[in-house]
Specification:
The structure is a homotetramer.
Chain A: H1 2-7, H2 18-35, H3 42-49, H4 53-59, H5 63-74, H6 87-104, H7 107-118, H8 122-149, H9 159-175, H10 185-194
Helix pairs in contact in A: 2-3, 2-5, 5-7, 6-7, 6-8, 6-10, 7-8
The structure holds a DNA duplex.
Amino acid sequence: MKDDLQKSRSSTGAVRSEASHQAIIEAARTLLSEKGYAGFSIDGVARMAGASKPTIYRWWANKAQLIAEVYEVESARAIHIPEEMAVSQRFSLLLTTLWELWNNTPCGVAFRSFIAESQNNKENMELLRDQFMQRRFALPREILETAVRRKELPADTDIEMMLVMSFGFCWFHLLTDNLEKTEAIAPFVQHLFTAVPRKLRDGTETAP
Amino acid sequence: MKDDLQKSRSSTGAVRSEASHQAIIEAARTLLSEKGYAGFSIDGVARMAGASKPTIYRWWANKAQLIAEVYEVESARAIHIPEEMAVSQRFSLLLTTLWELWNNTPCGVAFRSFIAESQNNKENMELLRDQFMQRRFALPREILETAVRRKELPADTDIEMMLVMSFGFCWFHLLTDNLEKTEAIAPFVQHLFTAVPRKLRDGTETAP
Amino acid sequence: MKDDLQKSRSSTGAVRSEASHQAIIEAARTLLSEKGYAGFSIDGVARMAGASKPTIYRWWANKAQLIAEVYEVESARAIHIPEEMAVSQRFSLLLTTLWELWNNTPCGVAFRSFIAESQNNKENMELLRDQFMQRRFALPREILETAVRRKELPADTDIEMMLVMSFGFCWFHLLTDNLEKTEAIAPFVQHLFTAVPRKLRDGTETAP
Amino acid sequence: MKDDLQKSRSSTGAVRSEASHQAIIEAARTLLSEKGYAGFSIDGVARMAGASKPTIYRWWANKAQLIAEVYEVESARAIHIPEEMAVSQRFSLLLTTLWELWNNTPCGVAFRSFIAESQNNKENMELLRDQFMQRRFALPREILETAVRRKELPADTDIEMMLVMSFGFCWFHLLTDNLEKTEAIAPFVQHLFTAVPRKLRDGTETAP
DNA sequence: ATATAAACGAGACGGTACGTCGGGTCTTTTT
DNA sequence: AAAAAGACCCGACGTACCGTCTCGTTTATAT
């Protein structure tokens, strides 16, 4: 949308202020990391960003979506998982990197907040499930698919089940504020790849 | 007077009204199941229960603790998992029963709400992690320990890891409103028991 | 029959605890003088007195009446106005003494609080007007009546008007927190006695 | 952004809703006159006005100030005291008119309530004494000053003392719910002007 | 001496209001 | 057209008091 609007700048009036956009995201980031979920409010973001609430609501439908964008922006720096490693090592590295991200940036609070916020609202729940999580799944899914292609994993590996199990494991630690236990990752991954889950014979996958 | 003039004349004071207690729990239950987490408020509970807010706050520190009690009351009817079944079947049955409980009673909303609410507040987070979840772990832990005793599972089975993996898997479905996919349980359990996670050689367990 | 038997075995029961009575009055006094009207509550009195709220309500119908008793107890030490002085001097001394009492004891706050509280409630209003104030009027009325008897004042002096004018003048200073201006008393009294108000010819008095 | 990125893009914001303002004042007026001081609450006003409590608190610091505005609005219709009358007649007419206002409009309850409420709070006390009462004094003060100018009253008339005495007299009747005794006004005024209070020789006035 | 009846403390209770916060919408003005 | 400013309604928050109501415990009196 941003691009389109800017392109048609014949005489359609003012365009979205990128400065405001950045200020809002930055304020949201700061508020989340300093005050946590409990201290996060749209009012607070507007105050800190020097923006007005309507401006925020014009671009984000609600708190959850603003938080989601904070997460996405903050986690945008590409995670590089070297291709020459074995799949279990790649996966392990991915999870470790993820936990570090959650521990050391506002991403951890943002993710927890987004999950919590999504429980309020059917629309946000769908956003979380069908879009946000699908983007989170992309990289690990690619790693697993690559492994299948390379024959490191069986052709009928139930990749979706592996994703759900992995994120379930991570969410549990995230949502019980237990992310420091990074030593739990290795045994988990080891188990996961010891006997890779397979798709059911009828071909249906087992998880979302 | 407090100190010298009197001092005798003591009493234990009036006793908690069980009627109020029940009315409040029942109202909370109803509100959760009819309006969901978004429509749940202490004001609403007070209104519906015909109780006063101070009475609620006298006995529950906050929303989270009231919700937790709703869960515990509602889930109190004993779950019986026949002893003569194999451990993987017992575990599978437990998870299925749990999902049914979450699907068909206010327990599902209550659990989701309690998790969400706990993200607000360090105190509730600890309550969730150190007390509430330990009570949830009791039955599955016992099933696994029994299996170890019966030599169905190796002596060094990492039971805590299995618990975290299992609840992680369940939470993920719960928190993405995906509990209808009960057919995902079987493959999960199958994988879990295909290669049971073992404790590390140094004897430390791998999870919480 | 049974009733008769039971009736004959009756008693008057326990008697009012003077210790509690004293403790409550003392706590009320302290609370009023330390926290003022805004910080005065029956809960607070009960707490400080080590008494229970029902005990307070058993003996005083409401806040106002408790405050009134505090005033009466506190102001009980007899005020002596020498008889050999002229009436205007006696009156002036009385008012000065009164303002000192209000300034240096909880009486000032108590009186203000009692007046304020009486605005809430018809019953207390009548108490204030018909009983409490009549007791306050007693001494000045006596001084004026004595003066009439001694022929210092005309026989048709409108004593009630003088009382109302005097207390009106004092109330205004009390209720605007302006009691330090004691130098205003002398000119007031001087004016009051310069041309003493007389009763109307038809004999009816002019004030309450 | 607040500081550097932006700073232009400003505006004065939306303007106070006169409709809300009127609705709130009107509701306060109605509540006072129907339920009296005891039945007057900010919650009640909000409810009746269809306004929100924050809107009320945005414009009035507390109950007292809202009540004060009700009084001022309600008493705004100019009181006309014909200039050609003698000062004592003008004064008498003023007081009679005032008592009628208090008796026949919510002004009476509002004044009583404002006085009572001001006893709670130092800030409101000052408001009452230094602003509200000064506005009430304006008209009678002007009448007396005019009389001095016209030489109806001596040059050294202690006008402030006369004001305090007059309002003290009126307050006493107001605060003891005794305003029906309008026949008390005439003798009071007669006495007041029979021997007008004079300023002390040193030039200081005697009252506030 | 012993029953009785009232008073007592403790404190829970329903109610009402307090003053504040946040959510999301609307209006006005400025750019 | 977009934005800042900020007013608005709504409704919830957690707390304070009010006055009433159990409770079980003294305690003075009247048998």
